[in-house]
Design goal:
The protein is of the alpha/beta class. The chain is built from 15 helices and 14 strands. It has two domains: 137 residues, Alpha-Beta Complex (Aspartate Aminotransferase, domain 1); 233 residues, Aspartate Aminotransferase, domain 2 (3-Layer(aba) Sandwich), CATH 3.40.640. The strands form three sheets. A seven-stranded mixed beta sheet has the order 4-10-9-8-7-5-6, with helices on both faces. A four-stranded mixed beta sheet has the order 1-2-3-12.
């Protein structure tokens, strides 16, 4: 088979485009957080990870603008060589303090953070144990590590115990879980996971991409939410969500972070975060600490919308955070509902396999602290209308 044959035979996406139900790579012409503009139309955005609504916060905007004026648009080098600014190390110090760890290390994206951290720590003689619903960046990091990878059923502690038991008692082991799962909106039960890690002498890494800014005091994450910071070895987070920027970080004991800093290929061989992104993160972190009401607001909105959907008859799965799936099941009906909501003035995300299990296609909805009550009332009204028209409820 010639190399490009697979490209020419891939027709599914273009066929869907022709039907008018293709929900991906749609270019916005304007965005103000809770609303976006598409083709001259205003839509309520309930598909963003801008949980605290900080992309339009004056402090965050001004910090990024000031950084461009001072440092320019790029560091033009990797952290390892010429791409580290004092801003980077300041952010790392403040993040470590925020999540309760000795040290932190900043990467250019959240994806690179997981890939670099896992592949640096897990060697050929080690094992990495992952939840079946873990993010793709975790899976890719495991594959690049060349270590033994064992997966367990989602949030199933008996399955985790068995997975850990399959590993050699003498080999290095690390369990990696999402703090909040990006599709289901449910929380990893850290108080149950930690005893199993201790029983099998495994380290624990928590991906808090969707947890920082949402769970814990001032949004400090899942470990803080459960009061188990000391028992979690590594805390990972991203800046493309609550931090209203781009990048990621890993936090833990100083010696562990020092090792990752000198062995993570995605850090060493990639250009560093530009100053504007770092400055935006620092400003967002300051807002989290000084405006904790934003964290409570987004949780309250999540509770309200989840209850509203359930009362209408929608299946919201196991969600317990501001990430609320509307489980539909059938791919075609999922696309149809996405399009009907789009036409009615609501933008959400259509998710189909392999991003979710077979027959579990869904609309992924997520909320911001800056959403208004009037917007949420309108969303529920339109979901009710469209859901009934399509026979979903």
């Amino acid at each position: 088979m010639e190399l490009f044959d697979k490209c020419y035979s891939f027709t599914r996406a273009k066929e869907t485009m022709k039907t008018g139900y293709y929900p991906y790579f749609i270019p916005f012409t304007d965005t103000e957080g809770t609303e976006v503009t598409l083709d001259g139309r205003r839509l309520i955005m309930i598909g963003s990870n801008n949980y605290l609504g900080l992309t339009t916060h004056p402090k965050v905007r001004e910090a990024a603008i000031d950084a461009v004026r001072k440092y320019g648009t790029s560091c033009t080098g990797s952290r390892f060589l010429n791409g580290t600014l004092k801003l980077h190390t300041q952010l790392e110090e403040e993040l470590a303090d925020f999540v309760g760890k000795e040290a932190a290390l900043v990467f250019s994206t959240g994806y690179q953070t997981n890939v670099g951290t896992i592949s640096a720590l897990v060697g050929r003689q080690d094992a990495v144990i992952t939840d079946r619903d873990d993010h793709a960046s975790i899976i890719d990091g495991c594959q690049l590590s060349c270590g033994k990878m064992v997966r367990f059923r989602h949030n199933d502690m008996d399955s985790l115990d068995r997975a850990l038991g399959k590993c050699d008692p003498d080999q290095g082991k690390m369990v990696v879980v999402d703090g909040v799962y990006s599709m289901g909106g449910d929380i990893a039960p850290l108080p149950e996971i930690i005893p199993l890690c201790k029983k099998h002498k495994a380290r624990l890494m928590v991906d808090d991409a969707h947890s920082v800014g949402v769970l814990g005091k001032c949004g400090r994450g899942t470990a803080d939410h459960f009061g188990v910071i000391e028992d979690v070895d590594l805390i990972m987070g991203t800046f493309s969500k609550s931090f209203a920027s781009l990048g990621g970080f890993i936090a833990g004991d100083e010696q562990i972070i020092h090792y990752i800093q000198h062995h993570a290929r995605s850090l060493i061989f990639s250009a560093s975060m530009p100053a504007a992104s770092v400055a935006a993160c620092l400003a967002a972190l300051d807002v989290m600490r000084t405006e904790p009401e934003r964290c409570q607001r987004v949780l309250d909105i999540g509770d309200r919308m989840r209850k509203g959907y359930q009362e209408l008859g929608f299946n919201t799965g196991v969600s317990e955070t501001p990430v609320i799936p509307i489980v539909i099941g059938d791919d075609t009906k999922t696309f149809m509902m996405w399009r009907a909501l789009y036409d009615a003035g609501v933008y959400t995300n259509a998710v189909i396999p392999p991003a979710v299990p077979p027959s579990q296609s869904l609309l992924r909805t997520s909320y911001m602290a800056t959403h208004t009550d009037e917007q949420m009332d309108r969303v529920l009204e339109l979901f009710d209308q469209v859901g009934r028209e399509l026979g979903v409820i």
